[in-house]
Amino acid sequence: MSHDFSELKMAVGKSSPVATEIAGAAPIARLAATFGTDVPAKAVGDLLPVGWHGVYFGALHRPDNMRPDGQAISSSWMPAVPLSHHRIRGDRTEYPGDIRIGDELKRFTKIADAAVTGTDDSPILCITQRSEITGPRGLAVVEERESIYFDGHGPAAGPAPVLPAALWKRTMEPSPVLMFRYSALRFNSHRIHYDRDYAMKAEGAPGLVVQASLIAHLLLEMCRTSLPARRIASFTTVNRHQIYDTGPFTLCGAPSADGQSAMMWALDAQGSVAQAGQIRFRD
Predict the structure, then answer these.
(1) Do β-strands 232-239 and 249-255 pair in parallel, antiparallel, or remain unpaired?
(2) Residues 40-88: pLDDT tens digits?
(3) What pLDDT digit, counting tens, does each position of 146-186 carry?
């Protein structure tokens, strides 16, 4: 079956309307409760750790604008994607500024690129979106996300990255409650994370799919809490394949020899690298 991607390609450069949200304390407390950690920012003026901004600016598409998988069909700036499956290939996030409880935040997202690979019978659409979050002190977060859309089976993972010996390691059990609460906090309605029947029957997964952003958050937190004196400038992740709730996964990390960065990665229950990333420090 041939698909027409011309409208999506013409949408490159289009931006969402600017959204505004107050950086509230309650979502931060709920995220901490989800992971069983101390609340890092409670009162107006408290500094949010990097990465905790993800509880703000959740998707707001209505039920009548929802794909079968729970995600938005389209928007005023993002045309409909004529492919059934969606995966996050990777994220590049920079933290040029800071966010504090009580800040008025503004966010907009731009379609930075849309490219089609694969074949006419089995196309793979890669869309890159760039988001910027600004606050009262200027630019705070810049995110670039690469998403892929496809029918049938997705692209195979590339060769596993060469990784150092892990200095930090932690094993996690991906419980349905953990994943549901995390999706609810981010208002993420992608059904593969909480609807087991859908994940297994419609997507062919062996179980629920652990959110790539959940794994990335835990890796970022592992580095931040292991090196509390260091300021994180950026975090880049690549998702090689999915992790399911059918077994534990392992978070790993190690600082570079020169102390300027850290490699972070997650292993699935079989010990295969599912997500890998690099954190760069500001100072």
Answers:
(1) unpaired
(2) 999 999 999 999 999 999 999 999 999 999 999 999 899 999 999 999 9
(3) 999 999 877 777 788 889 999 999 999 999 999 999 999 99
Mind listing the domains of the chain with CATH numbers?
Answer: 1-155 (3.10.129.10), 159-283 (3.10.129.10)
Tokens encoding 59:
């998707």
Query: Which pLDDT band holds residue 1 (cuts at 50, 70, 90)?
Result: low
CB 8 within 8 A of CB 26: no
Q: Tokens representing 253?
A: 């990390």
- Per the structure block, which two tokens stand in for 166? 């892990």
Q: Letter for the amino acid at 216?
A: A
Structure tokens given for 229: 């004196």
Percent of the chain residues past pLDDT 90, beyond the cut: 91
Determine the average pLDDT of the residues in 192-208: 96
Residues 250 and 75: their CA atoms lie apart, in Å, by 37
Instruction: List CB contacts of 162: < 8 A, sequence separation 6 or more.
Output: none
Per-residue pLDDT reduced to its tens digit, 215-232:
999 999 999 999 999 999
* Distance linking the first and last C-alpha atoms of the chain: 52
Q: Which of 189, 181, 239 is nearest to 213 (CA)?
A: 239
Give the count of alpha carbons within 13 A of 147, CB side only. 16
